[in-house]
Amino acid sequence: MDRTVVAYVIYLVVSISLTMWVARTLSRNGRVFLADVLHGNEKLADAVNHLLVVGFYLVNLGFVALYLSGDETITDTRGVFEALSTKLGVVLLVLGVMHLCNVYVLNRIRRRGVMEREQLPPVPPQEWVAPATGA
Question: Under DSSP, is residue 125 helix (H, G, I), strand (E, B) or coil?
Answer without folding.
Answer: coil
